[in-house]
Amino acid sequence: MNRALIIMIIAMLAGTITAQTQIANNTFEQWTSTAKDVAIPKGWHSYGDGDCQLKGIYSWGCGPMLKNHSNRVTGHSGYGCEIHSVTLAGNLVNGVLTTGQMQFASADNSSSDNNTYTDKDNKLGHNAAMKFTGRPDSVYFWCKFEMKKPSNVAVAKFHIHGNIAYKDISTHSASTPQKGKIANAFCDIKDRNDGKWHQYKYKFTYYDEQNHVVPTTSRTPSYILACFSTNKVAKGGNNGDKLLIDDIVMVYNKRLSYINIDGIALPDFAPDRTEYTWYCDGSGRIPQVEAEAQSPHAKVRIEQQNQAIRIIVCHDDGEKVYTVELVDRGLTMAR
């Protein structure tokens, strides 16, 4: 196998790993269609490809229901996605955007039979399952909420889970037990009534198999189920409420909390500064270094050399390197 081919394979593998630590098309630049009523960002789903299981006279609502209440708009940067609520047959239907499959099985909008789920086996052929292997510390995203009443609250939910058809139901809270649950972030979105985009930042909470909150986990996720809605309550809000979404980023904190050298705190340490100098006593002894990552999901590796110390913080999406140059104080004074 030649060198060029090896480099190409490594690059392809690296791209795959990166894609699984961020939501695909998280900037909403790729769209499957921009025609009216069918505009949907690639990798995302809404009413247009939902699974409508309504029976009898209620099945008549499947036609109007299976239209995407979404549009491509000018976003925080480039394009963004707008979802909006509508009234169908006298019922308010919240605008929804998800990485999963939408299911409508009850005429009651608040029924648990109506949900979104990760269709990991692709039973409906919509590829409504977002593969994901990261353990992020936080999620950042930009929104602009145009609502009819200032009291309305939109919602974003991010469920990190195992190899299971995980569900999101409007009545679920962050602490609701569910098989396969690894982490989640439930995010309330309130309008500031200024017509501007705002960035929202929320931390992930991690759970063990018994649904107890834990600081970290060794379990590797399989999927992420992301869901946005114009209102956190089924049939909540008002006709014409709009939620604009853009630039969703999973944040992996690779900062250090401290660096100690021979038991002494590095005096000018700052988590975002990565290059330092440490003056030694000239004995040639390599000093002992201790460092701790801010994130419980990150690991720290220390590489000590004669003239420098490298402190590597490893997280699911890559590394951050701190360097401490070792300088002989005696030689410096001699100059």
Q: Care to describe what's here?
A:
This protein is mostly beta strands. The protein contains three helices and 27 strands. It has helices spanning 3-19, 62-65, 329-334; strands spanning 31-33, 40-41, 51-52, 70-74, 79-84, 86-88, 91-93, 96-98, 101-104, 115-117, 130-131, 138-146, 153-161, 167-168, 181-190, 198-203, 205-207, 213-214, 223-229, 242-251, 256-261, 264-265, 275-280, 289-293, 299-304, 308-315, 318-328. The strands form seven sheets. Strands 8, 11, 13, 15, 17, 18 and 19 form a seven-stranded antiparallel beta sheet that branches.
Strand-helix topology:
Layout: H1 3-19, E1 31-33, E2 40-41, E3 51-52, H2 62-65, E4 70-74, E5 79-84, E6 86-88, E7 91-93, E8 96-98, E9 101-104, E10 115-117, E11 130-131, E12 138-146, E13 153-161, E14 167-168, E15 181-190, E16 198-203, E17 205-207, E18 213-214, E19 223-229, E20 242-251, E21 256-261, E22 264-265, E23 275-280, E24 289-293, E25 299-304, E26 308-315, E27 318-328, H3 329-334
Parallel strand pairs: 3-9, 23-27
Antiparallel strand pairs: 1-2, 4-5, 5-20, 6-7, 8-19, 9-10, 10-14, 11-19, 12-16, 12-20, 13-15, 13-19, 15-17, 17-18, 21-22, 21-24, 25-26, 26-27
Give a quick set of tags describing it.
single chain; 335 residues; mainly beta; Jelly Rolls; Immunoglobulin-like; 2 domains; seven-stranded antiparallel β-sheet; five-stranded antiparallel β-sheet; 3 helices; 8% helix; disordered N terminus
